[in-house]
Each structure stands twice: as C-alpha cells, then as structure tokens.
Design brief:
170 residues, yst0336 like fold, 7 helices, 45% helix, globular
C-alpha cells in the first residue's frame, strides 16, 4: 500500500485545526480543503489498519461491530445477488444504485456509530488497497460488504498472499 503524505500539502496547524472540528455538522464546512484532507487521512488510516488485521487473523472469526449479524442479515435481504468479490463503483453510485443503497444505509443511522463516515473499500477482493482498487463508500456500505466477504470466505486467502505492513514510528 502506498504511503500518502498529506502533511506535504498542509501545515501542522491546518491539520490540527481541521481535526479539532471534525465532529461538527458537515453543512458548516462547504468544501474546506483542510477538512477534506483530514477526512482523506482518516479514511486511509482506517483502510491500512483494516487490511493489516485481515492479513493477521482468520477473516471468518473477525467481528467488525457488535451489530455484524444484523448488518449481514439486512444486507443479504436487500442485496441477495450482489457479488461482493468485485464491486462496480459506477453501478453502486449510479442513480439506481444510490436509490437502492440509501434505504439500506439509513436504517443503520441510529444503530452504527458514524454510519455515513467516508471509508475506503477495495473494489476487487483479491487485491490490496491502491488508487485503482479503492472506492470511497459510507462506513455502513464498507461494513456490509466486508462482513459478507468475511462470512462468505472471499477474504480467506488474504493472509497467504499479503503480509501486514509495519508503520514507521516518527
């Protein structure tokens, strides 16, 4: 996984200022680049941590939330035929895709903390995160697809093909 260093674009003060206000409603920000950069950093950090966990444990035993059973059941009720091995971003984000995903996501508004938080999802389950293989989704979409991948055995060979990456301590 390539390292992304947003600190080259923003100074420490800008990153700290943006980080301190992330809990405020999104409508207050418009398109503030420093806030967007911090969101991108958080999404990348989450992806890196998740992939390292996948490389370290048996995915079938992995629980991502205390609501995994509910998320999986509702996901497969609404998307029984969705092939989670390969996600087509264009289909997912089309008007039809959004119309189908919106009710699924909204039912978890009060159940899953930060259900709409921007999260990176691997499009192709057989590959690592990369610019080409990453889709920005909501947290609940990420959870639903990754829980399905784990339970249905699609992440089983990750440990044999990839090794956890070690973070440099600075």
């Amino acid at each position: 996984m390539a390292n992304i260093d947003i600190s080259q674009e923003l100074g420490v003060n800008e990153v700290m200022a943006a980080q301190s206000v992330l809990s405020r409603p999104a409508e207050e920000f418009g398109n503030d680049p420093s806030v967007e950069a911090v969101w991108a950093m958080k999404a990348f950090e989450h992806a890196e941590i998740y992939f390292n966990i996948l490389c370290s444990v048996d995915p079938k035993a992995l629980r991502l939330t205390k609501h995994d059973d509910l998320i999986y059941t509702k996901f497969r009720e609404m998307f029984p035929d969705l092939d989670v091995q390969s996600i087509n971003e264009d289909e997912m984000k089309s008007d039809q895709g959004k119309a189908k995903w919106r009710p699924f996501c909204e039912q978890f508004k009060e159940v899953v903390e930060d259900y709409s938080f921007g999260t990176l999802l691997r499009a192709d389950v057989t590959m690592d995160y990369s610019e080409k293989n990453s889709i920005l989704t909501s947290r609940i979409q990420f959870l639903a697809i990754e829980i399905a991948r784990n339970r249905e055995g699609h992440n089983n060979d990750i440990r044999s093909r990839f090794k956890p990456t070690k973070k440099d301590k600075k």
